[in-house]
Write a sequence for this structure.
């Protein structure tokens, strides 16, 4: 009888310990997973900071069973190379405005489409954006688990002269990252374009491969483009979506609990990223002014001239299949209704 009682007590103790461990770590039986993620931005940039938060949040909420290692500052290559690595399964994720494999995301980069953070957020959180992101898995083998802002509104700069009207771009050789809507916009205003990878842009501007470029204030500051550019114009002509691509096979191999946690952490990361952009953009602009660069802010009439010069880009986007007329109208309606 004593032996039976001891056996029962031992069994109860084992069950009690197992229950206690389960309470401490509800994911103990789900396995361990590693997630390698790359991006191109340097330390201090909102993307860099928000990705560090994402990694910490995932580790905490999965009780360490999903480990995220972030390689920033282009350590894994150009944005295109990093996206190719994700598609091939060499790495599990990347963040950045790389649309070669998801060109339909370009619809959100129509010039002068939005004017406020509320309008940008409304577009990126819309059913239209969800539809476009869902298309990525079918065509590229990636899942887009978040869509936030890539850095804020984008500005023009060059080394030749101030840009105060569209005609000032005529004859300038402007760097692009290969995105059609950037090329279309510059060409509509008379510039020529040349493609230079982001990581090579500083030297490209310094050596004259390009006369000028376009980027948000936080990117200009973080990459020190103000050291090799004299004239800046605050035109706020585009924002870029910042998709977080994840290899679909890896994603679908995860337990559902971990997919839910990672998706929630990605949403929080995106919100934090956009908050950091809003908090840092004006400070970055002032630091660029303090460096000795010239920043020109167009008047309302001058801004309208830039906008009018780019109107033809909308029809070009439709003609090239970036979006349909119905989708263009839907975007304009979303922006008009944003508060």
């Amino acid at each position: 009888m004593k032996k039976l009682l001891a056996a029962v007590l031992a069994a109860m103790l084992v069950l009690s310990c197992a229950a206690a461990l389960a309470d401490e770590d509800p994911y103990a039986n789900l396995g361990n997973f590693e997630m390698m993620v790359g991006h191109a931005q340097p330390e201090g940039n909102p993307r860099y900071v928000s990705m560090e938060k994402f990694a910490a949040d995932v580790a905490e909420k999965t009780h360490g069973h999903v480990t995220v290692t972030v390689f920033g500052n282009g350590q894994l290559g150009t944005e295109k190379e990093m996206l190719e690595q994700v598609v091939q399964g060499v790495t599990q994720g990347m963040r950045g405005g790389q649309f070669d494999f998801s060109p339909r995301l370009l619809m959100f980069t129509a010039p002068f489409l939005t004017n406020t953070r509320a309008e940008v957020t409304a577009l990126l959180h819309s059913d239209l954006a969800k539809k476009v992101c869902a298309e990525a898995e079918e065509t590229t083998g990636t899942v887009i688990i978040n869509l936030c802002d890539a850095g804020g509104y984008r500005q023009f700069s060059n080394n030749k002269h101030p840009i105060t009207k569209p005609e000032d771009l005529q004859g300038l050789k402007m760097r692009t990252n290969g995105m059609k809507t950037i090329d279309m916009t510059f060409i509509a205003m008379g510039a020529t374009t040349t493609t230079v990878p982001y990581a090579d842009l500083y030297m490209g501007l310094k050596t004259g491969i390009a006369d000028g470029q376009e980027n948000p204030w936080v990117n200009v500051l973080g990459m020190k483009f103000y050291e090799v550019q004299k004239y800046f114009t605050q035109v706020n002509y585009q924002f870029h979506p910042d998709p977080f691509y994840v290899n679909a096979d890896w994603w679908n191999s995860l337990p559902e609990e971990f997919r839910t946690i990672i998706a929630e952490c990605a949403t929080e990361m995106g919100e934090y990223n956009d908050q950091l952009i809003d908090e840092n953009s004006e400070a970055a602009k002032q630091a660029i002014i303090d460096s000795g660069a010239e920043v020109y802010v167009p008047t309302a009439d001058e801004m309208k001239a830039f906008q009018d010069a780019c109107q033809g880009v909308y029809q070009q986007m439709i003609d090239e299949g970036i979006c349909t007329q119905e989708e263009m109208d839907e975007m304009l309606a979303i922006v008009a209704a944003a508060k």
Observations:
- The first strand starts at residue 33 and ends at 38.
- The two ends are 75 Å apart (CA to CA).
